[in-house]
């Protein structure tokens, strides 16, 4: 079996036309464990077979201490109905780019349902990508900037955008004509039990609206389908503490509330999301 760095090198060699230099935007070629552009900008594969496309270290609050419990909750089936629906809505499974992939659990779950021929996951968090390399699937992982994607024009058939920011100018650039974007956004009652527990005296944080995000999607994409999914997830006992640490919701919570929840963890939580499926056409260029 090939080492991960050799697997990464093979993927680059077979797919070098998919990549473009994030510095000068020129085409790239591969040699051994390196991809280099015509202007000489060079990016070397890590031992884990990943590429680091940023020109400077970016500090992010998304760390392995958050990604690990998130991954365990995903593996426990918290988003199983969402993944089932995403798999059924995907028209072009031959090549998927997961934007803001974190530790890669969503892409792995999707691949289990709808085998994907070619997969790239990227995130701005180096720690998330490091964890993603442990996923049991042949995806290619890289650290990159959403606002300056290291991918060539009109090369991506499908973009996944699950609970992560969007940059539509770049999405339109890299999507093939009639390529599709599948975006998952939280809706009003998403994790409502956790919000109420974390912020018992702050009504504004207990519910919220993502209509502005939905409106932006509809303005930027040709909307094909919009589907809301709401259900209650029974949290396995061994995952109840993971729920407290898997989301940015806990960042502003007092230590007293956190400790109380650890002693009395939630047993159920509401998943309330919307899947937006949109198509790209050359009219956006």
Distance between the termini: 43 Å
Q: Work out the count of structural domains.
A: 2
Name the CATH homologous superfamily of the largest domain: Vaccinia Virus protein VP39
- Topology as a string of helices (H) and strands (E): HEEEEHHEHEHEEHEHHHEHHE
Describe the protein's architecture and organization.
By secondary structure, this protein is an alpha/beta fold. The chain folds into 2 domains: 1-49, no CATH class; 55-190 and 202-227 and 273-284, Vaccinia Virus protein VP39 (Rossmann fold, 3-Layer(aba) Sandwich), CATH 3.40.50. The chain contains 11 helices and 11 strands. The protein has helices at 4-15, 64-75, 80-89, 105-113, 126-132, 168-174, 192-198, 203-206, 211-220, 240-245, 255-263, and strands spanning 28-31, 34-37, 42-44, 51-52, 96-99, 119-123, 140-143, 156-162, 175-186, 222-234, 268-279. The strands form 2 sheets. It has an 8-stranded mixed β-sheet with strand order 4-7-6-5-8-9-11-10, with helices on both faces. Strands 1-2-3 form a 3-stranded antiparallel β-sheet, with helices on one face. Helix 5 (126-132) links the parallel strand 6 (119-123) and strand 7. Helix 3 (80-89) packs across helix 4. The radius of gyration is 19 Å and the shape is globular. The model has no long low-confidence stretch (mean pLDDT 91).
């Amino acid at each position: 079996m090939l080492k991960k760095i050799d697997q990464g090198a093979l993927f680059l060699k077979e797919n070098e036309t998919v990549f473009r230099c994030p510095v000068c935007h020129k085409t790239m070629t591969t040699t051994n464990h390196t991809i280099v552009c015509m202007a000489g900008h060079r990016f070397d594969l890590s031992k884990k077979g990943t590429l680091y496309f940023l020109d400077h270290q970016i500090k992010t609050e998304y760390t392995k201490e958050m990604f690990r419990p998130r991954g365990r909750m995903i593996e426990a089936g918290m988003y199983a109905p969402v993944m089932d629906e995403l798999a059924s809505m995907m028209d072009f499974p031959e090549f998927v780019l997961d934007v803001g992939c974190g530790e890669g659990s969503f892409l792995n779950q999707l691949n289990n349902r709808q085998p994907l021929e070619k997969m790239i996951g990227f995130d701005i968090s180096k720690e998330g990508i490091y964890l993603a390399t442990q996923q049991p699937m042949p995806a290619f992982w890289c650290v990159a900037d959403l606002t300056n994607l290291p991918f060539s024009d009109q090369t991506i058939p499908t973009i996944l955008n699950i609970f992560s920011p969007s940059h539509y100018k770049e999405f339109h650039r890299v999507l093939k004509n009639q390529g599709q974007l599948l975006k998952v956004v939280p809706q009003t009652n998403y994790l409502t039990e956790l919000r109420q527990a974390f912020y018992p005296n702050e009504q504004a944080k207990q519910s919220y609206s993502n209509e502005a995000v939905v409106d932006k999607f509809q303005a930027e994409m040709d909307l094909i389908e919009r589907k809301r999914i709401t259900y209650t997830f029974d949290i396995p006992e061994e995952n109840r503490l993971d729920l407290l640490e898997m989301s940015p919701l806990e960042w502003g919570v007092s230590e007293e509330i956190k400790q109380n929840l650890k002693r009395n963890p939630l047993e159920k939580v509401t998943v309330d999301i919307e899947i937006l499926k949109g198509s790209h056409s050359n009219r956006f260029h």
